[in-house]
């Protein structure tokens, strides 16, 4: 189990996270939903070690983690192929990197772009590469901050289906921040709803995988987010 416990974070006078405790069960996907600006990215930055000033505890996150940030983190002077290779090279041999790269680029119709530099790709293309690179990196924990936000509907669907497929094969633990209730219902085993700032945990929902209650769950979440 990965855990954050009693996390409090202020930026000067702005109270952002106000005693946040969440358990992230292993081999499950936890989706974090909350109003804009409530501190979701701040929480991920605390988990990833980017933010060091906060009070509370983070437990279990010393594992190898792959991240997908809201904006892509591709290295501008490396082409697509080298960007992927750079991340995977400590984890797999050249042959495995090559087969992974071919399969993954094909999946999102980007095979022809493997020698392009990030500046010559669209924002959506760069985001697709970032997402696939994180999927390909064999970490125990995958953390994604609004990963599908800048993607067109088709690409989003392809990546969501692929994510579901990988999850069945790999049993990874995932934490996904999203604004999108449907996405949370599709991907989450657990949904954590946060309040407005100063932000607390408002509701935690464990989903049992059945689609029957989906409409009802959606209504409950919408209501929680509006209140
Ligand atoms: N470095 C910073 N210095 C001061 N205030 C900050 C800093 N980073 C974030 N904030 C403020 O903290 C609050 C939470 O920001 P954060 O980006 O974590 O929210 P979020 O829930 O991820 O937002 P969104 O859903 O819009 O992406 C916001 O009010 C933001 O203005």
From TrEMBL:
Keywords: ATP-binding, Nucleotide-binding, Transport. It holds the Pfam family ABC_tran. This is ATP-binding cassette domain-containing protein. GO terms for molecular function: ATP binding. SMART domains: AAA (SM00382). InterPro entries: AAA+_ATPase, ABC_SmlMolc_Importer, ABC_transporter-like_ATP-bd, ABC_transporter-like_CS, P-loop_NTPase. Gene3D superfamilies: P-loop containing nucleotide triphosphate hydrolases. Residues 2-221 form the ABC transporter domain.
